[in-house]
Design a protein that fits this description.
Elements: E1 2-10, H1 16-32, E2 36-52, E3 55-67, H2 69-81, E4 85-94, H3 99-111, H4 118-122
């Protein structure tokens, strides 16, 4: 199984019900072809770098999933024929991917909270004692040389 990322731009003028139906359709294509959606993140409406089909804005969506190469071919075929999708790109992130190991890793990351030590906050960034600033940097700052 491989891990893929597909980024697509949806027509921003569609109603919310249509957008959610499209999201469900894309996720069901992955599920019906033996894949698994790992993350599905709508980024919201943003300005496009250039006009696509006379649109200057688009609804950006980023999706990570696991599956085979036939899954990607079927997903891209459906994205290509759907008029609501303005653009898309698919990138393979990992050649060999184990979704079970990914679930375990995410579960462990969610359990371990971040705790800041009081001692670590007192150590300066340089790691040692504070040094005095050289005289040529004092008050006036750096001067432009001509």
């Amino acid at each position: 199984m491989r891990k893929y990322e597909t980024f697509f731009i949806v027509d921003p003028d569609l109603p919310d019900e249509t957008n959610s139906a499209l999201d469900n359709k894309v996720q069901s294509i992955i599920a019906s072809n033996g894949g698994e959606v790992l993350t599905f993140v709508p980024w919201g409406k943003r300005k496009l770098a250039y006009a696509i089909r006379k649109r200057t804005r688009g609804l950006y969506v980023l999706m990570e999933y696991a599956g085979g190469s036939q899954l990607v071919a079927e997903l891209e075929r459906n994205l290509r024929i759907d008029d609501r999708i303005l653009k898309f790109i698919t990138v393979m992130l990992e050649e060999r991917f184990d979704p079970e190991r990914e679930r375990e890793r995410r579960a462990q990351a969610a359990v371990v909270p971040f705790v800041e030590d009081e001692e670590s906050s007192e150590v300066p960034l340089g790691g040692g004692e504070e040094e005095e600033m050289p005289e040529d940097f004092a008050d006036e700052g750096l001067k432009d040389e001509e």
